[in-house]
Prior knowledge:
The chain is an alpha+beta fold. It has a single domain, classed as Phosphoribosylformylglycinamidine synthase subunit PurS (Mth169, Chain: A, 2-Layer Sandwich), CATH 3.30.1280. Helix content is 31%, strand content 28%. It has helices at residues 17-28, 53-67; strands at 2-10, 41-47, 73-80. Strands 2-1-3 form a 3-stranded antiparallel sheet, covered by helices on one side. The N and C termini lie close together (6 Å).
Amino acid sequence: MGRVVVDVMPKPEILDPQGKAVAGSLPRLGFGQFVGVRQGKRFELEVEGDVTQEHLDAAREAGVQVLSNPVIEDVVAVYADTAAVQA
Length: 87
């Protein structure tokens, strides 16, 4: 069994209140080296057999049409998860 990962992030011009909250917390928790945070979404799509280019293309299309809100989000990455456990 293969796995395709689709990463979705808010567009750069969209405010990210969750990211701002995390960014404000990090220095208080000893992680002062980070100056900004953006929070996104990760989708894991399982496929039968090995991941093919056709799977990746379909996952990107699903990301654009279904998994993201194209008004405020971008699909930033679509890739095969090579660390996925093969069943």
